[in-house]
Every structure is written in structure tokens, then in C-alpha cells.
Amino acid sequence: MAANxxxxxxxxxxxxxxxxxxxxxxxxxAWVPGHRIPFEHELATQYGCSxxxxxxxxxxxxxxxxxxxxxxxxxxxxxxxxxxxxxxxxDIRVEVEALGLPYRYELERxxxxxxxxxxxxxxxVQAPSxxxxxxxxxxxxxxxxxxxxxxxxLAAVPDAIDExxxxxxxxxxxxxxxxxxxxxxxxxxxxxxxxxxxxxxxxVGSPCLVIERRTWSAEHPVTHVRFxxxxxSHALVARFTPSQA
Length: 245
Fold this sequence. Notes:
Elements: H1 2-27, E1 36-37, H2 40-47, H3 51-63, E2 67-70, E3 74-77, E4 82-85, H4 92-97, E5 103-114, H5 117-123, E6 130-140, E7 143-153, H6 170-177, E8 182-191, H7 194-200, E9 207-217, E10 220-230, E11 234-237
Parallel strand pairs: 4-11
Antiparallel strand pairs: 1-3, 2-3, 5-6, 6-7, 7-10, 8-9, 9-10
């Protein structure tokens, strides 16, 4: 009886160890999406346990959304999928960390210029003005998560010209400094061109989800931003209730 209890305890300990080891490799980025997990018999040999113990750990990882199990092919690290509320202004860092992945931000381009006709159309302004154009990438683990292209109206946010945006993304910087009174979202699907494909490390022509947003502060246009995600890694969610008569 005591021997059985010891065996069960050891099995539970090994189950937790396998679970911890595999999840740590996935969340650290050591095993990237698409990486094949060792087969059950390989893990059983590695940990000196039964295949039942291994199967229990893999099933729990699959339930948590970290891996996907394919019949006859084995288990693979799953592409993390985020959910963003359509009607919220959210912080991409929070979105990435909610997936259990480390976040990193990278500024690729920063350019002050006189607003072009296209810039004015995107911001919804007509008068000549100066804008700050920013291109950034957000990472989840080692993988590019989102490409950001943003225009900031320097008439509305003159302090932006003094911010290098090297260590902080423009989204949270603006939210902390400029009270916004209205926002507009446009959502569409597109195919990755060469620039977006390189930025997101995906093939040219891959499906992408694009979220464009304009915000205003006291009726003054503040910013226009375009977020581009690889379609397979992002989903949009909106919760609503029936309107009342």
C-alpha cells in the first residue's frame, strides 16, 4: 500500500515537472510556435515515467492552449492567439503578457514632417500642420506580434516632439498625457506586402488583420494609428447587450 502511495506521489511529481519544463520552454521563447514536442515515448524515457504520466501533462498543456496535439503527427507549440476588445483602447504590452509571453517593443522609424495630403486625410484635418510619424514593432517572446504605424498631430500634442519613443510605445505615452474624448475603429483584412511580411516575419501574401484607429481630444484630432497583425495570431471580441426601447 505504501509502495503504491509512493509510486502515485512520484507520478504526480513527474507530471508537474514535465508540465513545468515544457511550459517554461514555450513561454521563454526557447520553443517557438510550430516546434514539435518530443513524442510521448521519448518524454517517458527522458523522465523515467509512464506514458500515462506524460499524456496527462500534454493534455493539460493542450487544454491551456500552449500546445496542439495532432493525430499521428505528435504535439506542437501552438501559435498564441490574443483577443482584443473592439471598442477599447488597449495596451499591447498587457495583451502580450496576458498570453504568458515576454513583451518587447522596438522603434523602427521616427520622422517629424509637414503633414501630407494623405496624413491630413488620415487624421481628419484640413489645415496645414506638422505631424510626427512613428513605425514600431511589438514582440511576444521572440516573435513579432504587431506592426504599428502612427501619426501624431503636433498641433494637438506638441510635447511629442521631445519624446524619443525609444523605450516607451506611443500608445501608453499618449493615454497617460492626453485625455481622449472620442475614438473610431476601422477593421479590415489584407494580404501582407513585402514591408509587412518582413516586419512580422511572415510570407508575402499572408492574411493579416488591420485595426485602424483615430482619437480626438475635445474635438481636436490627436492620432491615427494602424496596427497590423498576422491573422492567425489575433482575434477581435466585442461584448454587447440588446438596446433598450
